[in-house]
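Methods — Computational structure assignment.
A single polypeptide chain was analysed. Its primary sequence is given first, followed by the predicted tertiary structure written as structure tokens.
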Amino acid sequence: MKLISIAFSLFCLTISFSVKAQVKKVLADKIIATVGDKFILKSDVENAIGDYKRQAQGQENIGIPSECQIVEGQLIRKALVLQALIDSIIVTEEDVEVAMESRVRSFIQQFGSKEVLEEVAGRTVFQLKEDFRILIKEQKLADEMQAKIVEKVKITPTEVKNYYEKIPLDSLPLYESEVQVTELVMHPKANRDVEEYVIQQMLEYRKQIESGANKFDQLVKLYSEDPSAKENLGMFNLNRNEKNFDPAFMSGSFRLKEGQISAPIKSKFGYHIIQLVSRSGDEAVVKHILRIPPITNDEINETKLFLDSIRKEMTANRLSFGEAVNKFSDDEGSKFSGGAITGRDGSTYVNIDQLDKEMVVLMKNMKPGDISTPQVYLDDRGRKTVRLIYFKERTIPHRENLKEDYNKVAQRALEEKKAKSMETWFKEHVPSYYVFVDDSFQGCVELTDWTKVANQIVKEKTF
């Protein structure tokens, strides 16, 4: 099986707004391919291409897959789903719900609000979830099956070396100068008196709502410091199995009765009062008001002094930077990776333009091995934050080699080995399935192996 276009990941699910009643297929729709009892409709392919075109609007050098490639990707997914069911791989309804909730949330962010999403889609959020329930379950089953097929595929140093040596010298990538940087991040803590003042204000908000003197939505507009409050009026759809929400916020939400408003709840974002709008099992709709206790210069200077004392311990070799990050960092994303800044490919070597502007400015006067003095900057939530930076290493521009780029080469070699493992698996399994490919797709080069199996089935039926 020539599974090049899969790139060892399945075609992602997209949302089709061109056909508003997507699950209600018209009689004129046509089955163009089948694996076992799993079929692909002509409209599925047309909708997918329409989605790719919409997503590519305004972007340069974005390739749109052909109909043949779309059909190949969907045949791959259907075959993996079929085998997952045979192998009794389980995807729970909770897994599907969490994935749907995450998908809808990303759509709402993309379109700006739930109302705009529903207007563009011509369907309610609830209807959209139902439309995509089967597709999302299929995708998760396919992902699990794919992971099972390659779970034991490993790569040895000898295999990496052999892979590298087969690459023509003029095909080896050129790398710009890259840096290896780690950071220790701390968020200054608000003064307790300031926190108490904010808590009292929030208790007053609750009293106003409960007495009818003010409405929750109005207070959200006036006081909430949640950046999304203007779009969603503080409303969130929750699933208690969702891992992305703050645990304190989630726990406080599911303790409430419908209509009830919580006491102030502290999360990693600040203080909330939460109202439970509705609940059904593990699903809940809540509104909240967020207040972030203000940080004064006193708290910032206090944090700077503390980090400066940590820096002295490190420069005296009494504490390593990694140990300090693990012990003191407030950045959950990098706390357990030694504070390493990583690139999009997961590498700890990054181009200078992948660093934030404040870090770039600070590093101008640093050399490899230096630890910065405490720096105050605004994090991605707009909070004043303090950090130390360890400038670990700088590479010089170079052509890829095993000494400096072993991890990158090894990752590519591993992906190639996994792809070959997948090809072998398909060669062994697809002939055992019932496969049908419509005549209009028989000429697709990408579908050659599928059409061979399909045509053999037709020939056997004929004779």
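Note: Residues 436 and 455 are 8 Å apart (CA to CA).
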